[in-house]
Amino acid sequence: MSTTHADIPSMPFEHTQQFHDVLAAAHEFLLNRIEDQHLDIGSWTQDVVVHYVDTETASFVQEWRIPINEAEMRKVSSALVKELTGFGPLDDLLLDPEVEDILINGYQDVYVSRGGILQRETVRFSDNRHLLRIVRRILAPLGRRLDESNPMVDARLPNGGRLNAIIEPLSVTGPSISIRKFRKDPFTPDDLLARGTFDRPIHALLQAAVLGRCNIMISGGTSSGKTSLLNALASFIPHNERVITVEDTAELSLNHPHVVRLESRLGGFDGGGAVSIRDLVRNSLRMRPDRIAVGEVRGAEVLEMLQAMNTGHDGSMSTIHANSPRDALYRLEMLSGFAGFQGSETSLRRQIASALDFIVQIARLGSGRRVISSITEVTGVSDNIIATQEMYRHETFVDINGREHDRWPGLGFHPHTHKLESFRQFLHDAGAALS
């Protein structure tokens, strides 16, 4: 049976090239009108802006005899309001609480991550100039530039998100924009428990580890939930302690009353004035911290962080990009070597083993859910190898009805660290005692 043209559903007007052509022309018309009339729409209320744009859009459509109907004209008018007062096609995505990441590969190619699942969106920009105009509007209040002389930028957004942009000639396919959004209200441990990130015995172990001032490294891949987990664990820190966070781009939003947030700074055009994470970690030791949280260990700051964990700043936490606890330890060794560690391989491993108590591995499943995949205790050095014992491991099983479930069986080890001695009964009562 053949398919007729009438059988094919028509594309929504706002997704058509005609819409974007009309929008671009109407936007230019509107800007000229605003300039000719010497208007300061930045001082207007939203209702006044909407009324003005509706009126001017109707004038534009009539004057230029644009072949669109009333409903289509309203869509153009609504898009123009977002162009003037917001961030154009990005407006709705930035306001959507379910959106985690916005990834743009040129003006026609927009992907969005919701619940850990990446899907292509129907929104698009008129052209690459339109896309760059919106990105530069986001960057303008931050004092950051994006042009041929500065074709890469990484910036923290006022709402706590992060924007990374790279343009031609470095990006061959056009402007590539990555926006990472963060929740206004970070997940609590109870939230993550309810979402199935871990179970009650692991909740109890993590709480005891934080209260017992264990040093914790959260390991995982990109977008696995490392920052969210670190934010959640910080809520266990007693409120009478002072926490200092150190990050490249400030992403942590700790649920704690006494937090000092430090952020590194890029150098100027000549490289002067740069302040690295290593500088900030070194300085934080002079700020009377009870605990230090390094957003992500990725460079020379690893030596200062290990030193802090070994010299009276127990209870510190950090994240690292690694696919397993053993990979995390290898990465710490590698970063320390790059940072110029002067001692032997054995002394480096002893320092790492002495600094860390637990490595919490977190992963994103194929379904998009984030789960703790293992909890591993660092127990010391044996035969010149950092010794570990895995305490919990994530498993999935299918019940008789074909439904998939999670479980985290304990692997039969008592925590080795003396820091948890006083929590034995607490862990036992919570079902976290390991036989």
From TrEMBL:
Signal peptide: none annotated. CDD domains: VirB11-like_ATPase. SUPFAM superfamilies: P-loop containing nucleoside triphosphate hydrolases. InterPro entries: P-loop_NTPase, T2SS/T4SS_dom, T4SS_GSP_E_ATPase. Residues 85-364 form the Bacterial type II secretion system protein E domain. It comes from the Bacteria. One of its GO terms (molecular function) is ATP hydrolysis activity. Belongs to the GSP E family. This is CpaF family protein. It comes from Dyella tabacisoli. The lineage of its organism: Bacteria, Pseudomonadati, Pseudomonadota, Gammaproteobacteria, Lysobacterales.
